[in-house]
Design goal:
With 399 residues, the chain is of the alpha+beta class. It has two domains: 16-121, Immunoglobulins (Immunoglobulin-like), CATH 2.60.40.10; 138-394, Alpha/Beta hydrolase fold, catalytic domain (Rossmann fold), CATH 3.40.50.1820. It contains eight helices and 20 strands. The strands form four sheets. An eight-stranded mixed beta sheet has the order 13-14-16-15-17-18-19-20, sandwiched between helices. Strands 1-2-3-7-6 form a five-stranded antiparallel beta sheet, with no helix packed on it. Strand 11 (108-111) and strand 12 form a beta hairpin. Helix 3 (193-202) packs parallel to helix 8 (381-394). The radius of gyration is 23 Å and the shape is globular. 40% of the residues are buried.
Length: 399
């Protein structure tokens, strides 16, 4: 019976198609995240998304984007339209006969610890992450060996335009971390990191830099194993919520092991394989959401390695003024001398703990910081694209 269900499900999914005709809803365009040649989904000027799926054998179809049930016509075509969506990038799935699947006519992305469809909603007047007619850098795939945990590792490394021309020139480096349920692909794919930097560099708004995007060990969320240095998997602790450790004897957080990997393995590899300025003044670290929590954790344990820090929408992990950064936050003059840039951001639709409350705490303690609040966005990549856009312009500048 189970095998029969799978056969029927595959038949339903294989029959999914988008009717290609010219009878399109007025004022709509194919989403930029569609695969080549697909006319649906379509987006209008209000940010509403129109779906049209041919699946005569299906008994129910809904779209997670806006939780919209589709309606089946007599011709076996399912249609529906969402309410206006916030501008930017959104994950979504189709639920066909109760099973979540990716939309076969949309590009897929790794998020929420699985492959999902992606939807891009344009924002009027915003083009800083678009592909423009400017010199482009490269996103390079770099494999290396982690001695810390005796395993292969993989990173994506952005090198700026002209990197391969002047072989004597060295560059500062930003280590940029993704969020929960994502991996090293998130920033170059969903975040459009390379295009943001290409455009900023072309406009003279940011210094050319190398950006390293690695897997912070949080892609599989709570299922990620915790290992010791020999590679042995440790007992899984009971979770007490992000940013908090388990009780006595329950072990560390599942994302802690990346701290050693980045310091012991990743930074030496990047400094060896790329032409970097390897002093702390020319090295920065930033991250979004749980990657921002990792940024707090890694930077305060290794302030001798990073002089610039960016935390985007991280409601957990702020160490507090009394003891943070080995007591330096309680000594603002000393902290301000050591840290060139402390950048905190969030979307205006997020709770204050994601950034605003932290910024106010830092201000009250006399800690120099730059705060940015993206208008009208939530815990999503439109917030983090804008955060990177602002952060990158301030990085590695002379005071």
């Amino acid at each position: 019976m189970k095998n029969l269900f799978l056969v029927l499900l595959l038949f339903v999914i294989s029959s999914v198609g988008h009717t290609q005709n010219n009878d399109f809803p007025a004022g709509t365009k194919p989403a930029s995240t569609n695969i080549l040649g697909a006319e649906y989904p379509r987006v209008d000027s209000l940010g509403q998304v129109y779906f049209r799926i041919e699946a005569p054998e299906a008994t129910s179809i809904s779209v997670s984007l806006g939780n919209v049930p589709l309606t089946k016509g007599d011709d076996g075509v399912w249609t529906g339209v969402t309410k206006p969506q916030d501008p930017g990038f959104h994950y979504y799935t189709l639920k066909i006969n109760g099973v979540d699947v990716a939309d076969p006519y949309t590009e897929t992305f790794f998020g929420a610890s699985r492959i999902m469809s992606g939807m891009e909603i344009p924002e009027a007047g915003v083009d800083f992450y678009d592909i423009k007619n400017v010199p482009h850098g490269q996103v390079r795939s770099v494999y290396y060996w982690s001695k810390s945990f005796n395993e292969p590792r993989h990173a994506y490394v952005y090198t700026p335009p002209g990197y391969d021309k002047d072989l004597d020139k060295k560059y500062p480096v930003l280590y940029l971390q993704h969020g929960m349920g994502e991996d090293r692909r998130a920033w170059p794919n969903q975040g459009r990191t390379n295009f943001i930097l290409d455009n900023l560099i072309a406009e003279g708004k940011a210094k050319p830099m190398i950006i390293v995007m690695e897997d912070g060990g949080i892609a599989r969320a709570f299922n990620t194993p915790i290992r010791d240095k020999s590679g042995k998997i440790l007992p899984k602790p009971e979770r007490q919520g992000p940013g908090r450790r388990g009780g006595p004897g329950q072990g560390p957080n599942f994302w802690d092991e990346f701290t050693e990997t980045i310091i012991t393995d990743l930074i030496p590899t990047i400094d060896k394989q790329f032409r970097t300025l390897s002093d702390r003044e020319n090295r920065a670290i930033a991250g979004l959401s749980l990657g921002g929590t990792q940024t707090y954790q890694i930077s305060q344990a290794n302030l001798d390695k990073f002089a610039s820090i960016g935390v985007f929408s991280a409601p957990f992990g702020f160490p507090g003024v009394e003891s943070g950064y080995n007591g330096l936050l309680a000594k603002p003059d000393e902290f301000n001398k050591q840290v060139k840039l402390f950048y905190v951001s969030m979307g205006s639709k997020e709770g204050p703990r994601s950034g605003r409350a932290i910024h106010e705490t830092l201000d009250n303690a006399g800690i120099n910081n730059v705060y940015y609040e993206a208008p009208g966005t939530a815990h999503e990549f439109q917030t983090w694209r804008k955060s990177l856009y602002g952060f990158a312009q301030l990085l590695f500048q002379k005071k």
